[in-house]
Amino acid sequence: MKQILYAITLILLSLHTGSILAQDINLLQSRLQQYASENPQEKIHMHTDRNLYSAGETIWYKTYTVIDIENRLSTLSNLIHVDLIDPKGTIIASRMHLNINGLSLGEIELTDTLVDGSYRLRAYTNWMRNDSSDYFFEKILEIGNVRTDELFSKASLVTIDGTSYYQIKLENADGTLLPKTTVRYEVFDGEDSIDKGRATLNEDGNVLIKVDNKNRGKGIMLSIRKPDRRTVKKYINSQSFFSENDVQAFPEGGYYLANELNKIAFKATDPRGRGVPATITVFTNANDTVGKVATNDLGLAAGSFFLIDNSSYRAEVKFNDGTSKTIQLPQPQKSGYAMVVGTNFNKIYTQVNISEDKIDSKDLYIVFQHLGNVYYIAKQAAKKKNITFIKEQKDLPTGVITISILDHNLQPILERAYFNKRTSEVPTVDLNLDNKSYGSRDKVLSEIIIGSEADSMRVASLSASVVNLSKVGAELEDQSNILSSLLLQSDVKGYIERPAYYFNSDGTFKLEDLDMLLLTQGWRKINWAKLDSLNKKPEFHAEKGIRIAGYVKRMGRKAAVPNAKVQLISTHNFMDYIDTTANEDGYFQIDDLIFPDSVKFILSARNQKDKKYVDISLIETLEPQVNNRRNQPLINNDINTVFKDQFLATKAFYIELENKGLMDKTIQIEEVVVRATRPKAAEHSSNLNGPGNADQVITAEELGPCPNLESCLGGRLLGVVFRNGQAYMTRGNTEPMQLIVDGMYMEADMLSMINPFDVETVEVLRNVNYTSIYGFNGANGVLIITTKRGGGLVANSKPIGMIVAQPKGLSMIKEFYKPVYEPDSTSGFQRDLRTTIHWVPNLVTDESGKAQFDFYTSDEPGTYRITLEGIDLMGRIYRKQVDFEVK
Hints:
The chain is mainly β and 887 residues long. The strands form 14 sheets. The chain has a 5-stranded mixed β-sheet with strand order 2-9-8-5-6, with no helix packed on it.
């Protein structure tokens, strides 16, 4: 009887334990889904008209912002941020765009003083800042300069008498050398300047800089003074000079297991970190050959190797350049797990290999998920050395998913990224032209057709660029495209060489190469240990509009003013204002503002007693740091030289652009632009634009001895005349200018009462960009007088309880210029030498999946390329390239 009761108890306990485990797996799935819902993934692709530019040109782009692995156009963030970053890592241009239903347009004009080099173009939303900047959109643009530079460099590392030097060869476009001169240089670690020096440009056209501990592997900026007194800068990235060919080994799932077949991936790289072809052979410590693999063009390889206990292994690598290297592989572990993933007949096979001591009949779980979105969970008991899970590919989304193996305690023991291609998801796109070839200045008609009649939804947003292929650097075409951005780069950490290599425009993917990439690359994944901290508020919010935030404090003190009344007033319309109330800590924020860049506001605040004796401080929005590690192998030197033919071919077209007003005719020929230096205004000036931000500033030194201020200023102020002791603008000349003395608004005729000896500065505001902040008071111009501290007509005081705010606003959108060559048209060029023939970012297909656009060819014969990209409302991604000839 006792034995029967004991058996029943065991059965009940086992049933109870099974119930608990079932509850645990359900709880885990619930936590994962909650994590996914509270942490949606935004990702971005930018379609640019090309990848190669010259200073003075314009980068045209369209951004696609999507949500999660399904790639539906995102409505989470209404603002998108775009930065252009120079080779040194400094943000030189920044844009903010309204992101309407996941779509935005923009452009960046490249100034004519840019240093030639590799620039980073990045895009992100504020929400994306909650994760690593590795997942921001980023692509490398090569930018040359033949407008103000015209020097062609070649950097190398040389050894002279046993000493290493950076050698920079410089020559003019025609191959002639510059005369011998002194060259200044500055050494940078990122954006930080860490050293300066001088070197000599010798008679051979070479600059030699001795390698030392300060400049080894760092960025070096050279400043060369040309005979015409122009200063030209060259940036040298020396990091690649100090490495060698390398190889790394990666076991599938993270572990080697003894006495089992292990899949091992290899990545062979050159000194710059770029993949190179190689042959890899694995040997035992007894010199027995275990296996041999050859890499693809990107230095990637993978093979299966049977590793036994009590043996060590090494990999001998022979690179195609004749060099070799040997690395030691980690010792295979005797106890543990390993995994092997394969695909066959549209099914994913995941085999878990188990060491003898782990065969305990306890459940092992497999989870297919993407950042918490669970697509499949299954379990098997660990009753034998090898157990296999099988899953249909069609049930999983297209893109990078994570395959996780969990033990019976639901702790991850094996994990890897896997690229899944859902076989039923191959969206079709046709791009048809009205002719097979064209002549110069011919009109080209193109028709787009996406999807098929069986599709329930065929509405898509698309963008298209047309370029003269001979002028854009065809070798740059393997950079990111919309497929690689949204399906790969947004989920994979670090540098991916030639990401477009893995995706074909016909909808097919190079799955074997993708698998080798994911075996050797880190990826975006959830932190299982932090699933319980789901209620933690994200640091960065999803922006629905522009936020202005700050604190109200007691005047001259750090103490907060609780519940202060805050008012935001637009200087464009003083009747347009927003009221809010600060919290107990004096913090206030005004959200969801939409306004263009350069707009100014007045912020005023009062305490609970309705007194304005408070200080207001604004919270500055800091841009995310530049991730210099990412894409570092793509940072090139000597861009002017590498793409010399392309840049010189575009130079002749600049004159046409200038004549059409499409490019600035003013070329800055000096490192420092020669212009009249604006006198420095008094630091305690009450100018709402900021001290010195005025059309003209007169200092005390310029006033000189005179009986009254009117006579001191007469004839000195541009656009200003004096009548009866009052100042008038020559434009309009009906009402006197507003007089403001030390922040006090005064009657215009009080100017004669001011002692010239008490005046420190006089600021004249005439133009609307300075007077608009004063509203009606600035309609006739403003004269701001600041007296010397310690004496004067009135005591100096800044505006109390009020500050001027000029937050970053939305960038204006320009239209791409499209020449028309018809009999009566006047919008063409005399010599049409365009590189970007056409840019059309706002294509939308109709319900039948059709759209059209047209353009005109230029005067240059050759191969032209149309690149079409876009997304439909179902999240399906489209890409198509069509080449045609112009004769």
